[in-house]
Amino acid sequence: MRHGRVSAKQLLMEVSLHSHIGQHPNIIEWFASGEDTHWRWIAMEFADGGDLFDKVEADVGVQEDIAHIYFLQLIAGVSFMHSKGVAHRDLKPENILLSDTGSLKLADFGMATMFEYKGQRKMSTTLCGSPPYIAPEILACGRIDKKSPHGIKYAPELADIWSCGVILFVLLVGNTPWDEPSSSSWEFQEYVRTSGRSTDALWERIPPQALSLLRGMMSVDTSKRFSFAQIRQHPWYTRNNALTTTDGKVRDPLSLATKMLENLRIDFSQQPTASQQQAAHGGSSMDVDGAEMTPQSASQPEVPITDTEWDWERPALRSIGSVAVSSTQPALRSDTAPASRGLYSDPLADEPSMSQFSQNPGVPLTLTQAARQFRDIVPAESLTRFFSHVPPQLLVQMLSDALHQLNVPLGPVSPNLHSDHVATIRLRALDGRKQSLHGEVQIDRLYFEEGELLDVRFVKIKGDPLEWRRFFKKVVVLCKDGVYVRDG
To answer: Fewer beta carbons under 10 A from the terminal one: N or C of the chain?
Structure first.
């Protein structure tokens, strides 16, 4: 509030709507709220499983059965909200978390609105959401002349259904279908021109039954857009899935976690991949300004609508040691946090993040045999992490060189050679879709009996988790000579 990012009215609205929604297994539960002389606070359910999209491979997606179970749970959560007269209006990967059993949890109701109350329906005019996931009618609403007496309004509940369609698309292919649904996007214009039968390569990877479901949910004509009843009757929605119970819950959390971890793979033989749009138009991998950029920095390319109009920044993250955590995301596990590191015979024996560098696809037996719950295989913290065997000074130089190759200008970074915490490289960037991406590369020493390794963690503070993973993969491939990989 002090910085003008949120008003008292917005806070009260979020508390009011979140508490009004009530309990549902696929929605973060609201417990209480209050204030004192310094803080206004909301107590809510803890998402033990972290971000769903941290576990989705960029440009690949997840297996169809996994996409299906999370789509069922997404629809269950959103339709429950709608039954209470509340629309979310900001459905995107950042706001989709997981429970300790791997079940989907909808979060962040700062943009929510009451669209129905006592039988009366209300349209919206507020521009909100994230451009890749937003419905075209919201974008059109934001671009009209505000002084026009015939202002365009949109139905927020129908906009939510569009966003659910985009999220399903991303689960299946690991990429969004366009930067934004407007005339400036050739991918969207192709989708409109062909009535949802785009020749774009990404659409060709969608299973045929899911294609017709997506066309119904992502109908530009809102009068033809699918309702929840139509979605639930669709053959792809009702398909058999061994991963789910009859009521849409995860049947075997350990099996689900294993399949998700198997899908995360970094191929050192490949050059860093551009996103779909960059590949098509020859754009640079990232557009970044300096570490202390402001939203309207002169070095920042023009974007259709400035970032602050779309998504006011979350409250500053609190730091525990050198681990940044947010109110809805768990910290790193205590056995890997720098403050508690001791001497271990093999600290990486069952470290989940190591499997993504393995030459042989699969999850180590040592990890699955010892696992008792979902998070034992797929941890709450992000898997954007690697270990290095090279000296600290050389590693920092390799990272700096890689970031410069990706057009990330950095100031000098001096490693601390006499501390367990070697360095923190702070990044503020625009991703390939011109959206804010903000985080840190944290480098710490990890000691074990035969010597030491460096623990390199890419900690996202703000931005799309898939874009963050895509960025991480590019850096890792450029630094492959410094990445510790087990033999075999």
So the answer is: C
Average pLDDT over the chain reads: 83
Q: Is 51 a catalytic residue?
A: no
Cβ contacts of 189 within 8 Å, gap of 6 or more: 183
Residues 6+ apart with CB under 8 A from 64: 172, 207, 210
Q: How far apart are CA 181 and CA 177, in angstroms?
A: 9
For the segment 211-234, what is each residue's pLDDT rounded down to a tens digit?
999 999 999 999 999 999 999 999
Task: Give domain limits for the chain.
Answer: 8-251, 276-482
96-155 pLDDT, tens per residue?
A: 999 999 999 999 999 999 999 988 999 999 999 999 999 999 998 866 555 555 568 999
| Separation between Cα atoms, residue 426 and residue 417, nearest integer Å | 19
For domain 276-482, the CATH class is: alpha beta
Q: What is the pTM of this model?
A: 0.84
Choosing from 90, 108, 179, 376, which is the catalytic residue? 90
| The amino acid at 140 | A
Alpha-carbon span 454 to 442, nearest angstrom:
10
- For position 189, what pLDDT does the model report? 95
The DSSP letter of residue 52 is G
User: SS3 for 69-104, per residue?
Assistant: HHHHHHHHHHHHHHHCCEECCCCCHHHEEECCCCCE
Q: Could you count the other beta carbons within 10 Å of the beta carbon of residue 17?
A: 22
Residue with tokens 């107590």: 43
Cβ 235 vs Cβ 209: under 8 Å: yes
Closest CA to 29 of 13, 10, 41, 42: 42
Tokens of 483: 């990445």
Using CA atoms, how far apart are residues 221 and 141, in angstroms rounded to an integer?
15
